[in-house]
Amino acid sequence: MSSNAGENNYTDSMKGISTDRFSLEYFITNDLLYVDKTMYAYELVSSADKNFFFVSRPRRFGKSLFCSTLHAIFEGKKDLFKGLYIAEKTDYSFEKYPVIHLDFSKMSLLSEQAALNALQKRILGAAEDNGISIERDSPSEMLDDLIMKATRATGKQVVIIIDEFDSPFTSKISWKPELIEYIRELFNEFYKSIKADSAYIRFFFMTGCVRLSNLSIFSAMNNLYDISMARRFAGAFGYTEKELEDNFGEGMDEYLEANPGIYGSKEEFIGRIRDYYDGYRFSPDCEVKVYNPVSIGMFFSDFCKFDNYWEKTGGSTMAVELARRYNLAEIYNDEVFLMMSSFISFDISQIAQSRLSKDSIIALLYYAGYLTIAEPIPGGAILRFPNMEIASAFSGALSKLYAGNTYEAGKMILRGTAAAVNGDAAGMIYSLNEFCRQSSGQIIREKLENPYHLIAHMFFVACGCRVTAEDSTSRGRIDLTVEKDKHLYIMELKIDGTADEAMKQIKDRDYAGKYIGYARKSGIDIHLIGISFSSKERKVSEWKEEVLSVS
Predict the structure, then answer these.
(1) Average pLDDT in the 170-199 region?
(2) N or C terminus of the chain: which is more exposed, having fewer CB within 10 Å?
(3) In this structure, which topology does domain 35-233 adopt according to CATH?
């Protein structure tokens, strides 16, 4: 990374970081930072009893780069792997095979013809990459022709890599009723041809956000080994804590040296990075958690600026829109439980017909990366937001949907964020009231439980605050604890009551006592805020604040 002019300027001697390229060869030839995942690739390519694999992960978790890594391995490009696990720690031979690599992201699905053309185009591109001419029209026949000709031309079985298999089914365009069955049948025939030609396939690898079992088109492909929740692949996508420190530790050291006094220690700095970007757990059988690799890359490329990179790179609005059918209070209060069977029990094409059950919606939020496994329990798992970045992105998108005006909602969130950072309670309440004015009617019409508590919770999370609802103390529960940078806000919310009543409860039950020691140690200010909402006016009718001195 280059230096950056300004307050947080520092010269970083780390390798360059790319967050928008997905080619291993590009990383290696341009000497970019590549976090070595070839130990997982080796386990797959050297498997003696399995050769058809599938993995689901949210977007921006390195699936395409991993596909590129497998592609290079099977093309025999051993020189690219110098210094990496598979070349240095194993005896893998790097035997060359013909590779059919298909990327199904960004397919045009405006019509049946467009969908057909998009699939044909990708198969023709793979044929051209292998120097093979095919002349069939049906995608299934085209793929079969390509496999047979590649096998005859090289005397080797083929390798098939399919990236983002579910993209055609999660595109809003494909929700059109007239397209649903056509797209389903088109891909059903395509995948049947793969199963029929399995004897000619050395290795098959497919990725997606949604688990393949959720689509009936895969009924014919019963030979796929799903590693999505496998214990030994829990760290294959995303960065583990050790990988973060091993690969980005130098950048952390240089940032701290150039900006003394911002953090008390490197451990405190890492702790904040962990709060923002870590917390994804993909296997119920082990406790391995990973960081979002794109968010981490952008964080260090942006000179260690804490920001919502997930939202900037395009989160799934589809999942957020569907979440409104669920009890949002359960999501925000970490009360979401899902049976393991529910992760694989729905056909995603049902989204278009609004037939998804509430459990299916929660599973989809997991696939999209908004929820992750927090705690496995017999027969299922408790899910919650993985980190502050995702909680903020989800709440921000939800707030804009409820407000009905994306631009105005964005301004409210920015103003609320700035006020929270600066300890400006008046600014926070003003922004909250603006959000109430635009969104409360719709939220109340949905008959959600404790709508004003939910509104406040949602808004402050959207502002990037660490928010705890029903925060337990020895003498009761705090309605909301809201923390942002050097300020902690203890809030009691009353509906059609008074701010004095709310403030009296905070003091009588000594809600602040739980945080006095933490505040002194961390150098933060504690704000006691009593708030009264008017159900008639649908806004904060009055509020009071007291700032505690804890020095």
Answers:
(1) 80
(2) C
(3) Rossmann fold (3.40.50)
Distance between CA 249 and CA 100 in Å, rounded?
Answer: 38
Distance CA 204, CA 216 (A): 19
Q: State in words which class domain 407-548 has.
A: alpha beta
What residues contact residue 498 under an 8 Å CB cut-off, 6+ apart? 532, 542
Distance CA 496, CA 533 (A): 6
**H or E element, residue 160:** strand 158-163
Q: Are strands 225-226 and 52-56 parallel, antiparallel or unpaired?
A: parallel
8 A C-beta contact, residue 293 and residue 310: no
Q: What is the mean pLDDT of residues 128-146?
A: 94
Structure-block tokens of residue 449: 């439980």
Q: Give the mean pLDDT of 385-394.
A: 95
* Residue boundaries of the structural domains of the chain: 35-233, 241-305, 407-548
Q: Residue 6's pLDDT band (boundaries 50, 70, 90)?
A: very low
Q: Is residue 41 pLDDT above 70, yes or no?
A: yes
Per-residue model confidence (pLDDT) at position 321: 83
Q: Order of strands, edge to edge, in the sheet holding 476-484?
A: 466-473, 476-484, 487-495, 525-534, 539-548
Q: What is the pLDDT, as a whole number, of residue 9?
A: 40
The per-residue DSSP string of 34-61 comes to ----HHHHHHHHT-SS--EEEEE--TTS
Supply the DSSP string of 89-148, one letter for each residue: SS--------EEEEE-TT---SSHHHHHHHHHHHHHHHHHHTT-----SSHHHHHHHHHH
Distances (CA, A) of 339 to 289, 331, 499: 21, 16, 42
d(CA 498, CA 544): 10
C-beta of residue 491 within 8 angstroms of C-beta of residue 529:
yes
The Cα–Cα gap between 416 and 464 comes to 9
Could you tell me the pLDDT band of residue 286, with boundaries at 50, 70 and 90? very high
Q: How far apart are CA 115 and CA 107, in angstroms?
A: 7
When pLDDT is cut at 50, 70 and 90, the band that residue 116 belongs to is very high
pLDDT of 101 > 70? The answer is yes
